[in-house]
Amino acid sequence: WDRHFGVNSQMAFRSMLPALRASGSRFMSKGHGHHGSHAAPTLKARLKELIPKRVAEVKEFRQKYDNYEIGTYTLGQAYGGMRGIKGLVTETSVLDPEEGIRYRGLSLPEISQKLPKAPGGSEPLPEATFWLLLTGEIPTQEQVAGLSRDWASRASIPQHVTDLISNFPQSMHPMSQFVAAIGALQTESKFATAYASGIPKSQYWDYTFEDSMDLIAKLPTVAALIYRNTFKDGSITAIDPAKDWSANFATQLGFDDPNFTELMRLYLTIHADHEGGNVSAHTVHLVGSALSDPYLAFAAGMCGLAGPLHGLANQEVLVWLTNLRAKIGDNVSEAKLREFIWDTLKGGQVVPGYGHAVLRKTDPRYTAQREFALKHLPNDPMFQLVSKLYHVVPPVLLEQGKAKNPWPNVDAHSGILLQYYGLKEAQYYTVLFGVSRALGVLASLTWDRIFGLPLERPKSFSTAAFQSWIQQDIAYKANPTSNKPPANED
Helix (H) and strand (E) counts for the chain? Predict the structure, then answer.
């Protein structure tokens, strides 16, 4: 953090945390919590109520501070994936290197405590997560139930998409199938149809919202069809309007264990958003900035999620854990495990599931899954192996001295939970990640349209251009009478 932002910037971020937390609890003083008003507005109705004030706030903020410098950056950051450059606006979540992700100011433990749950359940409902991400408010149980019914009513998919999935070869990776199916769903885009008819810009958000609601509703059925066609008999059950989003998804996948349904609620909540700079979120924003409809923008984001350095990592972690267990067996001592980790590192390999581009502590998404495992599968051999790694790997990585963050991330844990309940096909795990990530990126895309954010177009330089610019800048600073280098912009 210090390297990328500087100590002053880190202190500034810390000073912002009370405001971020306040934004997450703003609903309490407005009567939109669990003890809220008698009337329960729908999600769209509530969003319409919020938009004018929020747009006015941003307009006023920009009028006052548009020319305010928010940071500097280095050549190393330009070559290094633009890490630490503050250049995106994402309303839905902010990632703190020390505390982890906050959805609208709320940490994951706070979300687990405050968001509505299914009757008899203990994990937050993803419907409530989406409501929070979109509005900044915690919905009532009634509002969440209404959203569940709304999504159930939108869940049917056209026959051509069903036929497409049915004809995919079983050798085709599930994420490739997922991307293709989402692209095929684009025939249903209300935004694309409305844009072609010439709607005003002020209505862009409305049709983006409708597309987002439709797409989120349809994704579990698409994902379940891919799973059942690739690994099972190809049949899925119909959507039950009385069930919540996660429960229908679990049933369509072919699982009836209530604890697996609870795991789905947890999984779909904690993977929903991770601010705007990660590959999938940034891609959806970037492609959406061209006014591509949500289907096209989300499909593009899923191409990014399929990469080994992003969403595919959870698959790679499980493969590594399985191979590790086969080599060393169960009940291995921590000393033996430490020796194996050192051999892995000395062999030029990495320990998958450890480290993160931004986080500098244990990922709270890892912790949430660990707590679930301690509650439901404490004696599972794979969980016990992961627990030992949690104690062994960070000290080894610190001793090695190369890792900026030696702590486990979300991918270090998710696979073993799915394995325990019988979803053993690791190739499929990133599809589950994709279904969840829709909640965050589509809520964010809706706000992009509300704010009327423009086409994203950062400036790029060639190495030769950077070399020339830097030399001119050095000469100018040494002798201000020399030619000043041109501005870094188009």
Answer: 22, 3
Q: 211, 293, 363, 411: which is the annotated catalytic residue?
A: 411
Name 405's Cβ contacts closer than 8 Å, sequence gap at least 6. Answer: 354, 355, 356, 359, 360, 361
Catalytic, 274? Answer no
Q: Are 295 and 182 in contact (CB under 8 A)?
A: yes
| Tokens encoding 142 | 């009634």
Q: How far apart are CA 18 and CA 21, in angstroms?
A: 5
Query: How far is the C-alpha of 264 from the C-alpha of 247, rounded, in Å?
Result: 8
Residue 271 near residue 278, CB atoms below 8 Å: no
> Tens of pLDDT along the chain (490 residues)?
333 333 344 444 445 555 545 444 444 334 344 334 456 789 999 999 999 999 999 999 999 999 999 999 999 999 999 988 999 999 999 988 778 899 999 999 999 999 999 999 999 999 999 999 999 999 999 999 999 999 999 999 999 999 999 999 999 999 999 999 999 999 999 999 999 999 999 999 999 999 999 999 999 999 999 999 999 999 999 999 999 999 999 999 999 999 999 999 999 999 999 999 999 999 999 999 999 999 999 999 999 999 988 888 778 888 888 888 988 888 888 899 999 899 888 888 888 888 766 656 788 998 999 999 999 999 999 999 999 998 899 888 888 877 777 888 888 888 899 999 999 999 999 999 999 999 999 999 999 999 999 999 999 999 999 999 999 999 999 888 877 777 655 5
Q: How many residues does the chain have?
A: 490
CA distance 145 to 137: 16
Is 356 considered catalytic here? yes
Which amino acid makes up residue 444?
S
Helices (H), 66-120: 75-79, 108-114
SS3 156: coil
Torsion of CA 91, 92, 97, 98, to 10 degrees: 120
Let me know if 271 is a catalytic residue.
Answer: no
d(CA 338, CA 327): 14
Contact indicator for 430, 75 with CB cutoff of 8 Å: no
Q: Which of 214, 310, 413, 448 is catalytic?
A: 310
Q: Which of 32, 274, 356, 413 is catalytic?
A: 356
